[in-house]
């Protein structure tokens, strides 16, 4: 059994209210704007995602990022997991990501996490994204018990949960 209904159609463009930003599924072609966003915020991202995902490595190369984005693009196409890029209107800057994944730990039917680049931390764009994501998941995704990693459960508490079967 899949983690999503067979007829589920994932959103392809999600405006972030009160901003000029939007979300769309990430692509390999985004490497040129993803790599500087990730590496420019790498230390803070490692503090968030490092213990769980060992990402982003200090030594991550452009080519490793490209391969990672290609994997994400293929997973999105197969509805295995989703990585949405937070982009400016022209799609010339990647400013963060939203991840929507099947549950790795017990107690939820979808696991959601997100980040913004260091320059947006504490600002209006981050607040708008923080408000949007749970509303968007509730409105457009078929989850009954989504879990917001680092939001409604700490990463440490999440890692302590039993693995989903």
UniProtKB/TrEMBL annotation:
This is N-acetyltransferase. InterPro entries: Acyl_CoA_acyltransferase. It comes from the Bacteria. It comes from Streptomyces sirii.
């Amino acid at each position: 059994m899949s983690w999503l209904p067979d007829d589920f159609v994932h959103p392809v463009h999600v405006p972030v209210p009160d901003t000029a930003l939007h979300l769309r599924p990430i692509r390999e072609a985004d490497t040129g704007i993803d790599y500087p966003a990730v590496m420019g915020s790498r230390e803070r991202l490692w503090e968030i995602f490092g213990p769980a995902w060992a990402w982003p490595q200090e030594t991550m190369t452009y080519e490793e990022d490209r391969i990672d984005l290609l994997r994400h693009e293929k997973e999105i196409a197969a509805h295995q997991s989703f990585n949405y890029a937070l982009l400016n209107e022209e799609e010339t800057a990647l400013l963060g990501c939203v991840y929507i994944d099947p549950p790795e730990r017990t107690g939820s039917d979808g696991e959601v996490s997100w980040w913004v680049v260091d320059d947006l931390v504490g600002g209006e764009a981050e607040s708008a994204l923080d408000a949007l994501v749970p509303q968007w998941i509730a409105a457009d995704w078929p989850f009954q018990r989504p879990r917001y990693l680092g939001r409604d459960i700490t990463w440490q508490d999440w890692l302590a949960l039993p693995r989903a079967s």
